[in-house]
Amino acid sequence: MRKTVQKQVILSTVLASCDHPDAETICERARAVIPSISLGTVYRNLAQLAADGKLKRISIPDSGDRFDKNVEEHAHFHCLGCGKVIDVNLNFEQMDSCKEFLTEKMGVTLTKITVVMQGYCSDCAKGE
């Protein structure tokens, strides 16, 4: 992976984030360091960083992708009200049995499992 100042700033921006920012938010934050950075540069570098395993890309149905500094296998919750994305640390025992079923009974080869649950966070649920 070619190191550029832009790529390093984008990676540092996500690593410093406590939320799961989208590309536009990352671009806004990166502009504090590189005012001329373009959204296209951010998108290209995020794709490369995710492909290289430096960041995790979270595909949110009916929404833009978000990016996570935690690249370990874990699930996410997406609030349909406010849009925030929250890490969910599940017990993956049941996932292991699902993996076993898929590989042994159906003959598939799993390369990745992505779990994104949707609903309303406690703040948004109060407002409904």
Explain what you see.
The protein is an alpha+beta fold and 128 residues long. It folds into 2 domains: 1-71, Orthogonal Bundle (Arc Repressor Mutant, subunit A), CATH 1.10.10; 72-128, 2-Layer Sandwich (Dna Ligase, domain 1), CATH 3.30.1490.190. It is 40% helix and 15% strand. It is built from 5 helices and 5 strands. The protein has helices at 5-15, 23-30, 39-51, 93-105, 122-127; strands spanning 56-58, 66-68, 75-79, 85-88, 116-119. The strands form 2 sheets. A 3-stranded mixed beta sheet has the order 4-3-5, with no helix packed on it. Strands 1-2 form a two-stranded antiparallel sheet. A hairpin with a 5-residue loop joins β3 and β4 (85-88). α1 (5-15) packs across α2 (23-30) and α1 (5-15) crosses α3. The longest helix has 13 residues, at 39-51. The model has no long low-confidence stretch (mean pLDDT 90).
List the helices and strands and how they pair.
Elements: H1 5-15, H2 23-30, H3 39-51, E1 56-58, E2 66-68, E3 75-79, E4 85-88, H4 93-105, E5 116-119, H5 122-127
Helix pairs in contact: 1-2, 1-3, 2-3
